[in-house]
């Protein structure tokens, strides 16, 4: 399957972890993210907050991009990351802010 037809999970893990790829594509993004209980915008905000709080920078870039695509503005993400500095820790928020800057100024 050409890269443009593959999901991000398929691109990252391919044949290495096919069950994790299936769960990511079918359950996480196919069901959880599709649930109508929260908008995709709100899910993105919650996910970014969780990733910053847990210091998961390897996942953060793609979710910051997704948050922007799901309707959060750069200014809203800056405000959220600033707020998180007091709850998640200054280093986590500063790291996330530099990643957001790189993404939005690229």
From TrEMBL:
<dbReference type="GO" id="GO:0051920">
    <property type="term" value="F:peroxiredoxin activity"/>
</dbReference>
<dbReference type="InterPro" id="IPR052512">
    <property type="entry name" value="4CMD/NDH-1_regulator"/>
</dbReference>
<protein>
    <submittedName>
        <fullName>4-carboxymuconolactone decarboxylase</fullName>
    </submittedName>
</protein>
<dbReference type="Pfam" id="PF02627">
    <property type="entry name" value="CMD"/>
</dbReference>
<dbReference type="InterPro" id="IPR029032">
    <property type="entry name" value="AhpD-like"/>
</dbReference>
<feature type="domain" description="Carboxymuconolactone decarboxylase-like">
    <location>
        <begin position="18"/>
        <end position="99"/>
    </location>
</feature>
<dbReference type="InterPro" id="IPR003779">
    <property type="entry name" value="CMD-like"/>
</dbReference>
């Amino acid at each position: 399957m050409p890269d443009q037809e593959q999901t991000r999970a398929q691109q990252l893990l391919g044949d290495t972890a096919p069950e994790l790829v299936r769960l990511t594509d079918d359950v996480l993004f196919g069901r959880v993210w599709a649930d109508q209980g929260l908008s995709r915008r709100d899910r993105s905000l919650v996910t970014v907050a969780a990733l910053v709080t847990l210091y998961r920078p390897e996942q953060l870039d793609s979710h910051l991009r997704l948050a922007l695509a799901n309707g959060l503005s750069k200014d809203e993400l800056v405000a959220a990351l600033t707020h998180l500095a007091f709850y998640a820790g200054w280093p986590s928020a500063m790291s996330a802010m530099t990643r957001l800057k790189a993404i939005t100024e690229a």
